[in-house]
Design goal:
Chain A: Heterohexamer of two PFD-alpha type and four PFD-beta type subunits. By secondary structure, chain A is mainly alpha-helical. Chain A has 2 helices and 2 strands. Classes of the chains: A mainly alpha (125), B alpha+beta (166). Chains A and B meet through helix 1, strand 1 and helix 2 of A and strand 3, strand 4 and helix 3 of B.
């Protein structure tokens, strides 16, 4: 292998490596996003249920092993805030995921380019 | 997971024959992965529905003349202590994320009824998506098989030609 194709090969390898790293973190992000989505869903269900309650219904919150009585209005606000927070998190994770996918595409293209150059170099010999 | 509308599905079906066998194989693998995920969520949902339905059934067996009736309260799944029903009309229900609400008998029944319906709705939604994906996957597999058959035929022809030439 001459110097040129060796350099190309090395470049290609670094690209492949960074692509694989991105892929790994991408899988992690997808899992995290699924978790956030399920939490958002659960919180929405809870809020729906709380909104159906009248003032004579009692609301409790689980704190460790005991149930603590809560004001209905407080609980509603709390769950609403949580939904807001989770939605924000979800949005930011979607954005990161999109950026990651773009980066992945770039690396994949780079790998294909180097591969082609390398093949050309090999054929020229 | 958004439902894939049927229109782009059709557009993709036209493109399928233009894709290479490798690309088709990749699509097939991706879809198979997605199908397993969908199957998993479906079975989870069915489990949830069974749980809610079970709670509802337990409530159905309650009668209004059960005041002071003696029951066995489970401490663990295999140990019970005797107890008496004191308050027939108050149930505390876990509604998720650590919140519990107190409801009367009818309200609780209503809650579980709504939950079962909600889960059923979700199941139906996902089953629809599942059906669409199955159809798409089948068409991908069909085109893939056609391509493979064509490639095999081409190879056989080349072989017979080279055999004739030699």
């Amino acid at each position: 292998m001459d110097k040129n194709s060796a350099a190309l090969y090395k470049k290609m390898q670094t690209e492949v490596e960074s692509y694989q790293n991105l892929q790994k973190s991408c899988v992690k992000m997808v899992k995290q996003r699924a978790l956030l989505e399920s939490q958002l869903n659960e919180n929405k269900c809870v809020l729906d249920e709380l909104n159906l309650l009248g003032p004579d219904n009692k609301v409790f919150k689980l704190c460790g092993p005991i149930l603590v009585k809560q004001e209905l209005e407080d609980s509603r606000q709390n769950v609403g805030k949580r939904i807001e927070y989770i939605s924000k998190e979800l949005k930011s994770s979607t954005d990161t995921l999109e950026n990651m996918e773009k980066d992945m595409l770039k690396h994949r293209e780079a790998v294909a380019k180097y591969q082609q150059q390398w093949q050309v170099a090999a054929a020229m010999k | 997971m958004a439902a894939t509308p049927s229109a782009p599905g059709k557009a993709e079906m036209i493109d399928l024959t233009k894709l290479s066998a490798e690309q088709l194989l990749q699509i097939k693998q991706e879809f198979e992965q997605e199908m397993t995920n969908i199957q998993d969520s479906l079975s989870t949902l069915h489990g949830c529905k069974a749980k809610y339905a079970g709670s509802k059934e337990a409530l159905e067996t309650f009668h209004s003349d059960w005041e002071n009736r003696e029951i066995l309260v489970p401490l663990t799944s295999s140990m019970y202590v005797p107890g008496r029903v004191k308050d027939l009309n108050n149930f505390v229900i876990d509604i998720g994320t650590g919140y519990y609400i107190e409801k009367d008998l009818d309200g609780s029944k209503d809650y579980f009824k709504r939950r079962v319906e909600y889960v059923q709705e979700q199941i139906e939604k996902i089953e629809k998506i599942h059906l669409q994906k199955t159809r798409f996957l089948n068409s991908v597999i069909g085109v893939l098989e056609l391509k493979q058959a064509a490639a095999a035929k081409l190879q056989a022809q080349q072989q017979s030609q080279s055999a004739q030439n030699s």
